[in-house]
Amino acid sequence: MSFTWLKRYMPRSLYARAAMILIVPVLALQAIVTVRFITDDLRGVTRQMTLTVSRELRLLADLAEGAGSPQEALDRLAPYLQTLNMGLRFVPPDQVPATDRIPWSDYSARIVRDTLRAELPETLAVSFLDSGRVSFFFRTDLGPAEVFISRRRVTAATPHQLIVVTISFGLLLTGIAYLYLRNQLRPIAKLAKAAEAFGRGRSVPYTPAGATEVRAAGSAFLDMRNRIERHIEQRTLMLSGVSHDLRTPLTRLRLGLSMLDEDDARPLLQDVAEMERLVETFLDFARGAAEGEPEETDPHDLVRQIVADAQRAGKPVEIAELSGSGALPLRPVAIRRAVENLLDNAVRYGSRAELSVALTDRSLRIRVEDDGPGIPPEQRAEAVRPFTRLDTARNQNKGSSVGLGMAIAMDVARAHGGTLRLGESERLGGLRADIVIAR
């Protein structure tokens, strides 16, 4: 039998699951002890006390047998009633309750009633309305009689004492265990926060602590983080060095071509300019999202600046929609580079581009849409890989590309703990590129 459906109702956080592991056994133990106490011990004690009272009542009935009047019966029973600490009186039939008077929550009273009716068939009614006294109504030859005794004669003085003690100690032990377990879970929570921050491009201080297994996991995380940071640094230095070394010969070529005839040098100068643009693209890819530290940024203001700069450069870019409000930690330089790359692709392969921003309590979405040919669904995963050029999907005659624009945008999105999603624009019919970042 599968219990996978239970997963929907299970708590998500580690603290909640640990609390459930502690509380469920304690509640189960308390329920078992309570049921056992009520069904066996409490029932047995109450029944035994009621049987004793029923024998005393039977004795009184035998002593009163043959009395000519109620007063004569009372005179006979007076010494015994005082000894047995009971009271008795004869009542008119209309003062006998039609039904037993027992509170719905009084479990012991129901045991007394059932036991008494089984032992004394003459019982007419039982009343437990008075918290300190119990009244029994019986049928006699002289008319209905009421016997009243102290409730403590038929029920235990503190039947709830064991339950209260069990619950109190259960809560105390649960609290102590939770405090201890919280100290054990705290290092795991710190490790999770450090890993989440690193996934969003931030490196927070972290020191392994806790149990041996948690320390081992923390040390492994630190080693992994250091290796990734060294890899990123080495990649950046390598590409930056190569790009920097290429600038010198390119500069010499430009100077040499400037001395030639303008008509002869123009095609070569265009080639040099294209090579310089490719070098700048390599540098952008090498830098990735490493420029600057995250700072509180209003994405609406950032997008307005990007669109204004693109419009001044003569690009057909417009703002379609800005929704939500607020600021969140971003690397504005890296986000600008990613959005500008998406806009460059949009206007290269389409006649216009639109940019929109949706900011909610859970995520930030920056969307770039164009009216170009788009990218087929089966090629979208490949489109975000570095140095990928989809000649069949995009018109390469409209501009040259080294195939890093989408890769840079994806790199920046991942460095912020988000992703880049490609789809079809419902508004313009071309490509839709979404940078989605969780808050």
- Globally, the shape reads rod-shaped
Task: Supply Rg.
Answer: 44 Å
| Biggest sheet descriptor | 5 strands, mixed
Order of helices and strands: HHEHEEEHHHEHEEHEEHHEE
User: What portion of residues belong to β-strands?
Assistant: 5-15%
Give me the CATH architecture of the domain at 11-159, please.
2-Layer Sandwich
Distance between the termini: 39 Å
Please name the CATH topology of the domain at 11-159: Beta-Lactamase
Which consecutive residue ranges, at least 5 long each, have pLDDT under 50?
392-400
Mean pLDDT: 81
CATH superfamily of the domain at 11-159: Sensor histidine kinase RisS, periplasmic domain
Total number of helices: 10
Question: How would you name the oligomeric state of the polypeptide chains in this document?
Answer: single chain
- According to CATH, what is the class of the domain at 11-159? Alpha Beta
Structural class: alpha+beta
What does this structure look like?
The chain is an alpha+beta fold and 439 residues long. Among the domains are: 11-159, Sensor histidine kinase RisS, periplasmic domain (Beta-Lactamase, 2-Layer Sandwich); 292-438, 2-Layer Sandwich (Heat Shock Protein 90). Helices cover 54% and strands 15% of the residues. The strands form three sheets. A five-stranded mixed beta sheet has the order 6-8-9-11-10. A hairpin with a 6-residue loop joins strand 3 and strand 4. Helix 1 packs antiparallel against helix 4 (161-199) and helix 4 (161-199) runs parallel beside helix 5. Mean pLDDT is 81; it is low at 392-400.
